[in-house]
Amino acid sequence: MVNLAPLAISIKSARPNFTYGQRLQVPVSTTASMLVRAGLPAAVSEDAVISSAMLVLTQVGTESGSVIVNLRRLAGAFNVSRTTWNNVAAQTGSTVAVTKSSPTGGTAWSFDVTSDLQGFSAGSLANFGWRIASTSTTGVRFRGSSASTGQPVLVLEFVEPGEAPEDLYPDGGVVSLDKPTLLFLVAPDTTAVQVQIDVDATGAVDFDSGEIVSDVGQVVLASTAYVGIAVGATTFWRARARGATGLTPWSAWASFSRTNKPTVSITSPGATSDDVSPPVIWSVSGGTQESWRVIVTNGSGTVVGDSGRVTSAATTWVAPKDLIRTEGGVGTIEVSVWDNVDRAVTPGNPDYAKATSTYTLSTTGGVVAPSIVTATTNGFSPAVYVAATATSAPDGWAVIRDGERVFTEPIQPTLTFSWTDWTATPNHEHDYRVARIVNGAVSPGGPHALITPRFSGLWLVDPEDGTAAVLWGDDEGSWSAVELAVTHQPIAGPPIRRVAYRVPLSGSISGDLLDVSGITADASIAVLYDFKSSPANRELRLFAGDRSIPVNVGDITVNPAPISGTERWSRVSFNWWQVDEVPWTA
Q1: Under DSSP, is residue 215 helix (H, G, I), strand (E, B) or coil?
Q2: Whole-prediction pTM
Q3: Residue 511 contacts by C-beta under 8 Å, 6 or more apart in sequence?
Q4: Which helix (H) or strand (E) is 528 found in, with range?
């Protein structure tokens, strides 16, 4: 709200050509009038919404009977030193009449001039002020603009409209959809939004969405009557919003153009594959590949292979590890390709092209399986020794444990095959099968070997080469599987625990190194020091009880113990962290 001090002068019919100018008191009757004018202050912008405007005059003296005072807008300007009764401009617009009965001195007379001020602000009406007169013979006197107190005052209530939407997106970018989603920043009190689209941002717009009920700065063009932007075209758009103070001004114009994305096709693998890690091959047309990414998920949706984003023109990727290892398992491949166009990312319209396909890991009936398969253990270590014999040499070999391929050697053209499995879960029965690989095809069926590996002590092994350290003792160490969770307590009801993240297993272990079963304490110490000097991410295998866990280890400490006769040993401790094969969603 703002109070304005209007300019007020007096004119009288008794002296029709005399300029009375500003006075301490101004009589208003059938023969005398007050002319009042107030300019809009700078605080009221041209976009302001005026909700109320009251011209308040203060009465001087007491009048008897009913007094009627009328206010009406002037059609022309008046001048303090030149305007008289005879040359005052005509009146226009509707009359605002106020009636009071026997008003006393100090009475405030309020005239509602809201519609006039709204017109002045909008520019639809010229602000020349008002003429105030009375149809009552006796009339009334008001304090003038020269009075020390009680001067005329214009009480103005207004609100500035919200600011125009900002951060229009896309702006200057490239889209691939003919009807992209438009985004912009609006005030929290927004109740509706509106966009206009025009090919050159001049003249009548080509498309107007009208007001769309929404509390966010987003317009989904696909849900409007917009015809869409053609490939190769550029267009302009702007937005405004409705809030508590009404419609905001229009934003500045933004622009976007349209260029189609390239087409990506996955050519390999096909519907089936014999390979646990098949090369992923794709082709790109309708654009220039600048970078790419391949993601492979298994049947449960878990990511088993991710190339990361690679800047390259290559169209082949071979995963560094097995992808789908279970016979009959399904893999889903997703290839994303970014071209050399700077594209805008909007909802439903990423800046890359994508293709997906699925394949099933299978065997080929035309390849003959080995004739003999064996699986043995030594009863001391957790290793399982797998061997096979074939009647003819294949190109390579594959080992299937419990229906899952755990090892592939694509190039080994021998009649016999052997491999040591350092990853099987101890104290559980396992079903082994060995397959021959011929021309990339894997043999089905064949002999099976069942075995339950058992071991003594606690083992830390590198499964790649079988180097191992064995610990003895009755200390099971510490095991931890931390959950990051928060507990909510409803007003009426039991507490609700929500788990945000489950941390894989970790812990610490200590034990003795002894000269037993062909592995000396010195050999175990050498292995531990080798592990300690290795990169921190070296993946080892921890065998404890009935667990086989892929881990990283750290803080390895070896403390020598006193020698007792010919027997010698050392005390060792280390911390470990599980790195894979988590049996729950981490």
Answers
A1: coil
A2: 0.62
A3: 457, 458, 471, 472, 473, 475, 571, 572, 573
A4: helix 521-533
Spatial separation of the C-alpha atoms in residues 362 and 368, rounded to whole Å: 15
Q: Which CATH class is domain 372-453?
A: mainly beta
Q: Identity (one letter) of the amino acid at 79?
A: N
Q: CATH 2.60.40.10 region(s) of the chain?
A: 166-258, 265-361, 372-453
Q: Mean pLDDT in runs of 10 for the chain (586 residues)?
A: 80 94 93 92 77 94 93 95 95 95 95 93 91 90 92 89 91 94 94 96 95 96 96 97 89 96 96 89 97 95 93 94 86 97 91 96 85 93 95 93 90 95 94 92 90 91 90 78 80 80 85 77 86 83 91 87 64 88 64
C-alpha–C-alpha distance, residues 48 and 76, integer Å: 25
Cα(158)–Cα(46) distance, integer angstroms:
11
Note whether 450 and 430 are within 8 A (CB). Answer: yes
Question: Could you report how far apart the first and last alpha carbons of the chain are, in Å?
Answer: 59
Classify 566 in phi/psi space as left (phi over 0), alpha (psi -120 to 50) or beta: alpha
CA distance 6 to 16: 23
- Rounded CA-CA distance 350/177 in Å is 10
* Inter-residue contact 241 to 167 (CB < 8 Å): no
Q: Which CATH number fits the domain 265-361, given the four candidates 1.10.510.10, 3.90.1300.10, 2.60.40.10, 3.40.50.300? A: 2.60.40.10
* Burial environment of residue 373 by CB neighbours within 10 A (0 to 12, 13 to 18, 19 or more): buried
**CATH number of the domain located at residue range(s) 166-258 in this protein:** 2.60.40.10
